[in-house]
Amino acid sequence: MTQILTHLPKGRRFDFRQATLGAAQIRKVQPWRIAFEVMRLSRGQGRLTSEDYFLLGAWRPGLTWAERRAFIGTKVTKALNSALNPPVTKAVLEITVDKLAATRRFQAAGLPVPLLHAVASETDSGGGLRWLDSPEAIVAFLRSPGALPSFGKPVHGSIGVGAVRVERLQPEGDLLLGDGRRVQPEALAAEIWRDYRRGYQFQEIMHPHPELARLIGPVIGTLRVLTLDAGSGVEVLYCHLKTPAANATVDSASGPLGGYAAIEPATGRILRLQDRRLMGGLGDSVSPVTGVALPGKTLPDFAEALEIARKAHASIGDRGLLGVDMMLTDKGPRLIEVNTSPLHGSHQSAFAHGLLNPDFLPRLQAVRNRFRAVTPRPKDCPLT
To answer: Most CB atoms closer than 10 Å: which of 56, 57, 227, 367?
Structure first.
């Protein structure tokens, strides 16, 4: 059966042999040198997998051994994130895994969020939102005047899985999706109810700021802002922008792979672009969607977006590190969600440098110092 909602494509696999041969050729060394380096880094402080080594850019020529060791894999990322926060409370967990709860928290704090149209679920989510309590109710909503266009996504979900962009209802009665497919409302409703009856929300479609659209194309990309608080106020550690691929409706791996743009936090200037279809460090300067050379360009409304990200962090409570997701829309920056344990691989890929670099380490250690008394050092954490 054909899936309508976004899902992780099958058949994507990492070819270690080809990556090793390619890296060896570029670095002008024997393949065994690359394989040996992979083995050493897998046992080092960063616990890099072979995929991490190549996709994040730790293989690149010209790096010192210290620079290669600065890259961290998923296991170390999770340990580091735990060490930089107090234990997660039930209230914090709710607003970081439940998109509706997060939206309500942000609205209460006066922060801009996308407009919600309706929520499909077995139980009423409350808050005055239109409640779709069955597949038939979803179909009725999709056919109702003013409901479309809408962007649908699970209330509890991540990495873009389960999303759909519904543009309009056709005269023939089927739905036109953002990727050009036509589907019956009943088929879409059945899939949503089968997989996401716990909660599925429909919200307004976010369009990029005109300047951002000129740079990356008509589909908006997520701006990730990593915020820290060592006890003297929220600050920004890093930023990167996801750039959707051509014909994509989401900017995640649940669709065609786009890119990561490295953003200078002080200015909003794009420093480099990493094509996610290539090994880390082999980025291109030109957007494959627009043909515009991105390095040197500045993101619109960037200072305002960072201020919203800092306020979002503060609204969550006493946290040391958060990943805040924003969108730079034609209506101004919009807050999407926060993550208590953000994966740092996308940042490392975007910048082609490791997280444990000399600029970041003192700031990360300061946050660790703040929570050392309440958070025992997790296994694999690179900080004391």
So the answer is: 56
